[in-house]
Amino acid sequence: MNSQFKKGVLELIVLLSVNKRDMYGYELVSEVTKVVDVNEGTIYPLLKRLTNENYFETYLVESTEGPSRKYYKLTVLGKSRLEELKKGWIEFSSSVSEFIKECEKGE
Amino acid sequence: MNSQFKKGVLELIVLLSVNKRDMYGYELVSEVTKVVDVNEGTIYPLLKRLTNENYFETYLVESTEGPSRKYYKLTVLGKSRLEELKKGWIEFSSSVSEFIKECEKGE
DNA sequence: ATTTAGTACTTGACAATGCAAGGTAGTAAG
DNA sequence: CTTACTACCTTGCATTGTCAAGTACTAAAT
Hints:
- The structure is a homodimer.
- The first copy, chain A, is built from 4 helices and 3 strands; from the N terminus they run αβααββα.
- Chain A is α+β, with helices and mostly antiparallel strands.
- Chain A has a single domain, classed as Winged helix-like DNA-binding domain superfamily/Winged helix DNA-binding domain (Arc Repressor Mutant, subunit A).
- In chain A, strands 1-3-2 form a 3-stranded antiparallel beta sheet.
- In chain A, strand 2 and strand 3 form a beta hairpin.
- The interface between A and B is medium-sized, with 34 and 34 residues.
- The first copy, chain A, binds a DNA duplex through helix 3.
């Protein structure tokens, strides 16, 4: 897969996931990977950035399977960011798909 | 528009455009901008890279409206690159759209 | 008890892409 | 002869994702 396609979309995928239910980082890696391959070194810095930008709040929950889990929860600001990104993605991807179709028509 | 969505897709848009007909750099800027905003500082280095990777051949044509135009033409290798990218894009964008739909379902 | 495996998070050096800004140079019109 | 438009190219920068390594905690196997 072209790893460049990912840029920017990862943020959307992460916001969508956390919007479904609060999640912790390690869980997000496997959740997000269902859609686009991603590794820890990508997810954790992204979560940090989104938390700094006040899209997430975090809280710790102890686990019996290892160290405490840091859960991420969407803030109100995060929800509006999600809507904005989602709208942007839909517009963008359909205009690209439209262009592809037009080019195929002319062949 | 989220400029990050562009990453990687620009190459696809450029290949699609040149596949329709040979084009020169300056022309490509306005052609590609119909789909995604782009400027010269992005296009020229990209054209150079794609030429170095043997996806393009170039030839000069004199113009009565300014300096000579450097036209870009898709090579056989370029056409296969185009098909590859196009396939990749379609798969990628539909899996993202699918994920968005699933998330909306659960609301 | 100690090793192993799995969970969970962090950090720093790195690569790829796009942008803004600037430079060169030809043609045409005022 | 200056302005404007066409056309091309380069450089330095910011953003984002990747890779590799490291820390630390828990549970189960040896």
